[in-house]
User: Which sequence fits this backbone?
């Protein structure tokens, strides 16, 4: 039982990370209807840019290496780069493709992911880097002593951060003017346009916000597994999360992430040994596939009605 | 002046229904095939045959397969490399386990195995469509590669999952030199490409296009979506499977499951985007473009910039150029190289009096 709980909690916490990637994706899909395959590449770009800045900043400015100033400066610079990247994407790639079929936009984002990966590695180099957030990856002693369950404090921190992020995004969407405009655009482009919401500004903002989410996801992922190219593959796991949760639902992304994270770890531990292990690589996809057969629009997605 | 259909009267149904109704097209295709079969083996050196022409042909076949599914039937797939893997390992195992199995039969059986797997993973397409389906096909991609690695039976218990293709013997003749392998590949690809060209204008092909354009409307006018979609998956996977078999037997010789990864699937997808979605001709153009581009970049960058860039940066530059070109093509010419070809033909019809 204890072992089961440990696996379950470990899975849930890694699911939080999937959810973070999926979140950036949902934001863009909701607002502009673009299936942004490049979200994984953006996460990689963000993490690499952050690490790159922490490495070069002490040399440029004479600040103390590994200090708090460098950390925050690098964070701000990485954030600025992500926002610039997001807005540039919107302006250069997506604006000329307005009114193309969704499949064309999707393929454009596949091209974009190659482009972003190439640029990131071209600027910062391709070697694996470590990323320090200053949070130790040690088991929480209280849980270990009293309940004999091993939970990493880092994972817990990541989960808390994800919670804060989702909470603040929800507040942002609910109570700010820009947030309301975003929701209006997500609801109906044409109606939003007709009441004077500048669609293209909104899209630029959404891409900027998605860049911010990608940065947070990239930092946590990077601190966990090191900043490396494999990050983009892990980010692909966000896709079954989206299927499960529905493409347009923020809570769906979170719940889907938790389900995928938990079930893939449980499957690996309890089913894996019977078939030779390593089923983590495909289990989420098959799970999502089976789920789709029952509910094609995902857990929280909007039901789609076809009309001729 | 020379390229026009004026004056070519069709006096029989047979003449009206040929694959290439215009004489100039027929002559052109015949010349291209004749040059490919007779002239190229004489003038091309081993490097060209082995590293460029054979992979271009094989990827053209795979691209035709994906084009049938995505371009004609409108079902986006990200798992074409996995179906190639099924074809490659299927052909290998049929050769290995059945004594005296002829190569061509094994290749076709490998393709049929891929078709069966394709139908299996195509089943969800009956319920889901669009992006959901694209993600679902990722399941095929990851599951098949995993299964080929995990169950050593598929690779005849070789330690690393690598298989070495058997010798190709047809009617007692062994195809071992690069020229022989090239000609064999060419023959198979030409036959299958003509079949595909023919297939997309049959009732099946028209049903695919109807489903692609609007599946509800297609259903209303009496096209059975289930049958149509599953046939598309089967035919597409068959083409990919045969391409995979050729990839193992006439191109690389030794393959491993990991070679058929997601990256390869994307490459095939890029081929049909750049070549032209919904065009057999475009599959060839796109495959040639995607195979030649890295070779071109590898050779040109050092000449242009000397040793300014390191090798790792050059590989990143390749990613950047790849991604950039995809976006460029989608923005400038969403219908790909095939559309440019078509525009060229239109121009040629009017030339030299464009008014």
Assistant:
């Amino acid at each position: 039982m204890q072992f089961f709980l440990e696996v379950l909690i470990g899975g849930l916490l890694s699911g939080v990370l999937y959810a973070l990637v999926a979140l950036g994706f949902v934001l863009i899909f909701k607002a502009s209807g673009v299936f942004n395959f490049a979200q994984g590449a953006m996460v990689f770009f963000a993490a690499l840019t952050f690490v790159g800045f922490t490495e070069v900043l002490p040399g440029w400015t004479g600040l103390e290496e590994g200090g708090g100033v460098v950390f925050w400066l690098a964070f701000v610079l990485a954030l600025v780069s992500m926002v610039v990247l997001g807005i540039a994407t919107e302006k250069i790639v997506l604006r000329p493709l307005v009114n193309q079929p969704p499949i064309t936009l999707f393929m454009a984002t596949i091209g974009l992911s190659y482009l972003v990966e190439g640029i990131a590695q071209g600027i910062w180099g391709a070697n694996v880097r470590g990323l320090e957030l200053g949070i130790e990856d040690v088991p929480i002693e209280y849980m270990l002593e009293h309940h004999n369950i091993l939970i990493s404090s880092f994972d817990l921190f990541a989960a808390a951060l994800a919670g804060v992020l989702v909470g603040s995004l929800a507040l942002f969407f609910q109570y700010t003017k820009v947030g309301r405009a975003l929701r209006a655009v997500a609801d109906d482009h044409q109606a939003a346009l007709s009441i004077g919401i500048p669609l293209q500004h909104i899209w630029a903002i959404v891409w900027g916000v998605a860049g911010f989410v990608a940065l947070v996801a990239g930092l946590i992922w990077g601190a966990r597994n090191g900043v490396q190219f494999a990050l983009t593959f892990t980010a692909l796991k966000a896709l079954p999360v989206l299927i499960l949760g529905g493409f347009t639902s923020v809570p769906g992304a979170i719940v889907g992430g938790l389900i995928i994270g938990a079930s893939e770890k449980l499957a690996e531990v309890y089913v894996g040994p019977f078939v030779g292990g390593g089923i983590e690589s495909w289990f989420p996809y098959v799970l999502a596939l089976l789920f789709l057969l029952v509910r094609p629009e995902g857990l929280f997605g909007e039901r789609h009605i076809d009309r001729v | 002046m020379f390229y026009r259909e004026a004056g070519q009267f069709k006096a029989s149904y047979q003449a009206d229904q040929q694959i290439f109704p215009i004489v100039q097209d027929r002559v052109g295709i015949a010349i291209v095939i004749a040059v490919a079969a007779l002239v190229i083996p004489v003038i091309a050196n081993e490097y060209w045959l082995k590293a460029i022409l054979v992979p271009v042909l094989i990827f053209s076949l795979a691209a035709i397969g994906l084009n049938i599914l995505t371009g004609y039937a409108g079902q986006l797939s990200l798992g074409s490399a996995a179906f190639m893997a099924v074809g490659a390992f299927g052909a290998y195992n049929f050769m290995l386990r059945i004594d005296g199995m002829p190569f061509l039969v094994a290749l076709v059986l490998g393709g049929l195995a891929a078709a069966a797997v394709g139908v299996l993973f195509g089943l969800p397409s009956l319920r889901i469509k669009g992006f959901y389906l694209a993600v679902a096909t990722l399941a095929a991609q990851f599951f098949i590669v995993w299964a080929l690695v995990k169950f050593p039976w598929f690779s005849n218990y070789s330690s690393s999952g690598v298989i070495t293709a058997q010798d190709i013997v047809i009617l007692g003749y062994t195809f071992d030199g690069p020229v022989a392998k090239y000609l064999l590949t060419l023959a198979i690809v030409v036959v299958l490409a003509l079949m595909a060209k023919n297939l997309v204008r049959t009732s099946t092909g028209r049903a695919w296009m109807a489903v692609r354009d609007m599946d509800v409307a297609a259903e209303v006018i009496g096209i059975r979506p289930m049958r149509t979609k599953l046939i598309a998956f089967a035919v597409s996977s068959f083409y990919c499977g045969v391409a995979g078999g050729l990839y193992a037997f006439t191109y690389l010789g030794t393959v491993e499951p990991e070679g058929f990864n997601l990256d390869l699937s994307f490459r095939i997808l890029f081929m049909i985007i750049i070549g032209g979605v919904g065009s057999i001709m475009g599959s060839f153009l796109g495959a040639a473009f995607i195979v030649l581009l890295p070779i071109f970049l590898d050779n040109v960058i050092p000449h242009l910039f000397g040793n300014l860039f390191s090798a790792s940066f050059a590989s990143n530059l390749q990613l950047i150029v790849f991604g950039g070109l995809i976006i460029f093509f989608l923005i400038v010419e969403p219908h790909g190289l095939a559309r440019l070809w078509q525009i060229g033909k239109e121009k040629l019809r009017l030339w030299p009096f464009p008014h």
Notes: Chain B touches chain A through 45 residues (CB under 8 Å).
